[in-house]
């Protein structure tokens, strides 16, 4: 529920962002709306990029629960204020603060590992990533259906009502109301950060947690065995898995941006000429499949193959699927809808397999009192890559549509080719010597 709370505000604005920027009268020409909208979309990721590591460190110092509670409270406040924005800069500021103060995903991934037994770690992290993925699908549906209610539902909402004067407030209010309910439920959430008082060295390591980002090594006796704590930046099993995570996150964000643009663009430009409702239906089916896959299939796959091998297989299977996308333009209904839904379901489930595998590697590459900081560091890197990916994907997509008769991968074929190049790079990096693995994963 907390992961869902963190995901909903990220994507719920995209269906109405174009109209919101138009109504704020900041763009002098219609062609400039996309330019201004891009900064609103990027402000959240920029804020999260700047503060994720700090929130992770804070979660290791004072506990997971206080950071989570504050993060949910910030969603309630700033997501509501964003819906009430009366100027462009208010929209930018509230989205930036929403990202900067929303340090939820890093601590909740650490929490998922700590709240269950080791054999259930894959299921716990798959639940987190599934809820996240579902939030990124439900969010746009919520925003698209509930925005501008006075225009879409004139019999229910008057133009003079609150929702008539603030046409983008209703979807934000619904998300904030859900976050408020989750905030209340956190009263019963147990803390999982255990501060062992038996060792003076351990107390020092917790009190001086920031030093783990700088200090070379710190050795601690724990449960009769020697546990070597390194600087996070010198912990190569952690850093290599974070780099791989960032590359695949960049790929997934670029794919998400391209998929909707490609599906809705005209067939003469290599698209599918689908409506926004058609695309929403595909995403809804994909979201439902993610829930089933992560609950019932992924834990078994991880148990058999392990996080590394499952990620490798998923990455290599994505490549032929992406190559097949441009050729769907030759299909007609109902075959097109069937094939597109199948391809989207497989592609997104393979992507979640990779991301969940990197989650497991990251959280097991560090001791518990560095786990929040490690997740915060990975969130910082991921947020940066996800801030760059949509802009880059949009530029490449626009360029590709202008070269419909190019010699080398004409039109949208070039877009999916470049997506496959990124996927192939991530696949290569899952092998040694780049990916350093802990002893329990050596068999993978």
Automatic annotation (TrEMBL):
Q: Which GO terms describe its cellular component?
A: membrane
Q: Ranges for the Major facilitator superfamily (MFS) profile domain?
A: 1-438
Is this entry keyworded Transmembrane helix?
yes
Where is the chain membrane-spanning?
Answer: 5-21, 33-55, 67-90, 125-148, 168-189, 238-262, 282-301, 313-332, 338-361, 373-397, 417-438
Q: What's one Pfam family the UniProt record gives for this protein? A: MFS_1
UniProt xrefs under InterPro entries = MFS, MFS_dom, MFS_trans_sf
Membrane topology term: Multi-pass membrane protein
Report if keyword Kinase is assigned: no
What does the UniProt keyword field contain? Membrane, Transmembrane, Transmembrane helix, Transport
Q: Where in the cell does this protein reside?
A: Membrane
SUPFAM superfamilies in the record? MFS general substrate transporter
Predominant location? membrane
Checking PANTHER family in the record gives: MAJOR FACILITATOR SUPERFAMILY (MFS) PROFILE DOMAIN-CONTAINING PROTEIN (PTHR23504:SF15), MAJOR FACILITATOR SUPERFAMILY DOMAIN-CONTAINING PROTEIN 10 (PTHR23504)
Q: What is this protein called?
A: Major facilitator superfamily (MFS) profile domain-containing protein
Source organism per entry reads Urochloa decumbens
